[in-house]
Amino acid sequence: MKVIEGESDFTVPAAGKACKTWYKVTGDLTSGRRPLVAVHGGPGVNHGYLLILSDLTKAHSIPLVVYDQIGTGNSTHLPEKMGDVGFWTEQLFLDELDNLLAALGIQDNYDLLGHSWGGMLGSRHAALQPAGLKHLVLASTPAAMELWVKSQNALRAKLPQDIIDVLDKHEKDGTTDSQEYRDAVGVFYSRHLCTINPLPEPIAEGFSWIQKDPTVYLTMNGPSEFDITGPLKDWSMLQDAHKIKVPTLVLNGRFDEAQDPVVAPFFNEISRVKWVTFAESSHMLHWEERERYMSIVGHFLLDYAGGI
């Protein structure tokens, strides 16, 4: 398959320096087939764990666009903006997405798949009703962070008591950067982030970017999934989900951090929508039930017109 990599200039006056968004395209954007733009989670991981979506390129000739959001991966890093909540805003990432679509010349005809935080961004983008967006996939995406936190706490309460004690201790002491705390979080992740053991390298690499440069994650989110102190703690689509008018596919897993109540508002509020829950998956559906995932998403992108 044809693969190209590039960088798109991204003007951010408040950054104080030139910024670029790195991207990769698998397939041919000039083929006549509508491209799929995949938006990664985090915030602060990178694109790598979404390259598996090139299965759709192989099967259906759907061009795949992945990119690293500003602040992570191969795009411009701004560690000097640590803690600057006025800089790291949802609007910054919406502007970056619009800029990339225009730079690639696909702004008039594209589909969008967002995973986790990427789906949060994608849902807001869709609610603005851009003319070129034709289909939306929200994979393990919370409709509101208050629902996400409630889900995390409910799942956390089912962990072994010794793991809960470690989490509680380090959060109380403010030592969430300790290895013991990370190991305890790892137990949670093995149940609700990705059940594949060992963790696939692209997923592990994505999370390593939060360690390499935690600027975006710590500023917008906070120390962990359980301790959200950044501005994302108040993020919500509950009042705006009904503004999404394109056919939408909502996905989550039985063991997902995004449990059913977390994603249900999208199903309840979007007029043209389908919802599929994967019985054997947690947060990484596209890895854990790869074949079924690609079949469902491929069929939706090619055939679904929102008639139910």
TrEMBL record:
Gene3D superfamilies noted in UniProt: alpha/beta hydrolase
Family statement: Belongs to the peptidase S33 family.
GO molecular function: peptidase activity
Name of the protein described by the UniProt record: Proline-specific peptidase
Pfam families in the cross-refs: Abhydrolase_1 (PF00561)
InterPro entries in the record: AB_hydrolase_1, AB_hydrolase_fold, AB_hydrolase_sf, Peptidase_S33, Pro_imino_pep
Matching NCBIfam families: pro_imino_pep_2
Keyword annotations from UniProtKB, A to Z: Hydrolase
GO CC, alphabetical: membrane
Residue intervals of the AB hydrolase-1 domain: 35-289
Annotated GO biological process: proteolysis
Signal peptide: none
Organism whose genome encodes this protein: Roridomyces roridus
Lineage, opening ranks: Eukaryota, Fungi, Dikarya, Basidiomycota, Agaricomycotina
